[in-house]
Amino acid sequence: MGGLPKYAPMLAVLGELPAEGEGWGFEMKWDGVRAIAYLDRDLHLLSRNDKDITVAYPELGGLAEAVDRPMVLDGEIVAFDEHDRPSFAALQPRMHQRRPERIQALAASTPVTYMIFDVLHLDDDPLISRPYTRRREILEDLWLAGPRWQTPPAHPGPGAEAFAVSVRLGLEGIICKRKDSPYRPGRRHRSWTKVKSLKSQEGVIVGWKGGEGRRAGTIGSLLLGMYDDTGRLVYIGNVGTGFTDATLADLARRLAPLEQDEPPVHDVPREHAAGAHWVAPRLVGEVTFTEWTGDRRLRHPAWRGLRPDKEPRDVVREQ
């Protein structure tokens, strides 16, 4: 990364559309993997949990050749489906792959695009203390557009109109950003508010139950947990839909070495604990769901995929 300083990504708070006014800017929320890009002759990509993921996305390497000055960018690595809509499912095989020959094949069949939405450092100058509007101006002046990277346009508002655009495009929602806000590395702050068009929640896999019928002999459902306000891992429900056969095979392979005799959580209802295979709480996944129940369980969750860019201890309820 040369002489560039490291920056942890700023995080948004889940919320509602802010009151109309001149104080907010709006961006589409891209459904992918967050990555900070360090460009100083070469490209280095670090995930939200500070893992080097450069090798997984060779098609993004051309970005380093397209710029002629050192910089640090913030953005989202996104895969698109046949309808040119972001597809988290399409991205899943790319997120875990480290075998060079398989990476090259996936880069050709399922290429990703780096959607750039912020610039944190340029030449010798840190930009994080500058307001969002100024950083946005600098970013747009860089003209970062290429075969596998782009700077998506910001939406001037109003917020309801921006949200309607995200729904029409089949996106996950929008990010509302205070125009006068600095970039706060490693912090979650309300000056960035995410408004989702669907509810999603991360969960730590704490166990699994065998399937029946067509799924006999494999995983039928996953038991999920999250960390509460006291730092205790608690059960939040089980998910049994949204899986493909390939997903189930991959999960079985990843969970096998994590099996243990004792449950990592102790508040699983008896009917769900019966016959469960317990695992060490190492893997994080994401589900969509309809609502939280009164006893803090997910109602009608559906599996979206694993999140190797998230650490188990960071999985808490989105407020």
Instruction: Kindly state the number of beta strands.
Output: 19
Q: How is the quaternary structure best described? A: single chain
Report helical residue fraction: 10-25%
The major β-sheet equals: 7 strands, antiparallel
**Approximately how much beta-strand content do the residues carry?**
25-35%
Pattern of helices and strands: EEEEHEHHEEHEHEEEEEHEHEEEEE
Describe the structure using short key phrases:
7 helices; 19 strands; seven-stranded antiparallel sheet; alpha+beta
Give a nutshell description of this structure.
The chain is built from seven helices and 19 strands. With 319 residues, it is α+β, with helices and mostly antiparallel strands.
Give a verbal description of the structure.
- The protein is α+β, with helices and mostly antiparallel strands.
- 18% of the residues lie in helices and 34% in strands.
- It has seven helices and 19 strands.
- Strands 11, 12, 13, 14, 15, 16 and 19 form a seven-stranded antiparallel β-sheet that branches. Strands 3, 4, 5, 6, 7 and 8 form a six-stranded mixed β-sheet that branches. Strands 1-10-9-2 form a four-stranded mixed β-sheet.
- Strand 11 and strand 12 (219-227) form a beta hairpin.
- The longest helix is centred in the last third of the chain and has 11 residues, at 245-255.
- It starts with 10 loop residues before the first strand and ends in a 13-residue tail after the last strand.
- The mean pLDDT is 92.
